[in-house]
Specification:
Keywords: Membrane, Transmembrane, Transmembrane helix. The chain is mostly helical and about 180 residues long. The protein is built from eight helices and no strands.
Length: about 180
């Protein structure tokens, strides 16, 4: 059973790793490249900060809620961010990046982040209740949260893969039709 728990610890990093491969696969699609770059940047920040925030015990769950909001922000504001950078730099990359339309996969990623926010909010409240001796056992945190996060990581990975395959990918220049 310990080998399984070691394996599940790595599943949390799966969306970030798949995002790197998706970035290379979708390199010719400027809008996909912009979105994946934003998500990878936040994912790297998340992975780096985990070594510090995991020791916060109580407020770790608040940090995870904030990071999930950070993952939602590029999906909602990426066009505005790209246009603002375009106005500052006049780089055509950012003008083209602002033209990416909202996709079903992005909606799925946002929904998964919202589910994660809800799960961590429940755990956050549960920990406060436990610390104030209102409850005796952290049911949700101990028995459900880790399993929920595994499911959300796998579904996020599938959403990223679906987004990558939806975009033109490596054959974009050859398959572009008029």
């Amino acid at each position: 059973m310990e080998a399984l728990s070691d394996f599940t610890a790595y599943i949390a990093y799966l969306p970030l790793v798949i995002s790197f491969f998706a970035l290379f696969y979708c390199w010719k699609d400027v809008g996909a490249r912009w979105l994946l770059t934003l998500l990878i940047t936040i994912g790297c920040f998340d992975s780096y900060s985990l070594q510090y925030t995991i020791h916060w015990t109580t407020h770790y769950y608040g940090w995870v809620i904030l990071l999930n909001l950070l993952f939602i922000a590029p999906i909602i504001f990426r066009n505005a961010i790209a246009l603002r950078i375009y106005k500052a730099t006049q780089s055509t990359f950012f003008l083209e990046a602002s033209k990416l339309k909202f996709s079903q996969q992005e909606a799925a990623i946002m929904l998964l982040c919202l589910i994660s926010i809800a799960g961590h909010a429940i755990s956050y409240v549960e920990v406060f209740l436990y610390k104030n001796f209102v409850i005796d056992i952290l049911y949700f945190k101990n028995f459900l949260l880790a399993k929920l996060q595994i499911i959300l990581s796998v579904l996020s990975t599938l959403a990223i893969l679906s987004f990558a395959f939806k975009t033109k990918g490596l054959n974009y220049a050859q398959t572009k039709t008029v």
